[in-house]
Structures are given as structure tokens and as C-alpha cells.
Amino acid sequence: AAKRRINALKQLQVKCAHIEAKFYEEVHDLERKYAALYQPLFDKRREFITGDVE
């Protein structure tokens, strides 16, 4: 009976790990999306700092 419960807990842990992996995959996708949105602003800021534009 105890082995059965331990195996059930292990299966639950595997399911949790799969959900967590999906979470981090989606976080990574969001970071890439917003990095692309920020990049033009960072480029423009760099132009001001380096004196390329007034």
C-alpha cells in the first residue's frame, strides 16, 4: 500500500514538472517578445548617448 502511494506521488511530481517546464517555456517566449519591443527604444537611447543624433 505504501509503495502504491509513493508511486502515485512520483507520478504527480512528474506532472508538476511538466507544468513547470511549460511555464518556463512561455516565460521565455514572453521575454523574447518584449525584448523585441524594447530593442528599438534601446537603439534610439544609444544614439542619443553616443551623440549620433541631437
Automatic annotation (TrEMBL):
Q: Which SUPFAM superfamilies match?
A: NAP-like (SSF143113)
Question: What InterPro entries does this protein map onto?
Answer: NAP-like_sf, NAP_family
The processes (GO biological process) annotated in the record are: nucleosome assembly
Source species, domain of life: Eukaryota
Q: Name one GO cellular component term.
A: nucleus
State the similarity comment.
Belongs to the nucleosome assembly protein (NAP) family.
This chain's protein is named Nucleosome assembly protein 1-like 4
Q: State the species of origin.
A: Sus scrofa
Gene assigned in the entry: NAP1L4
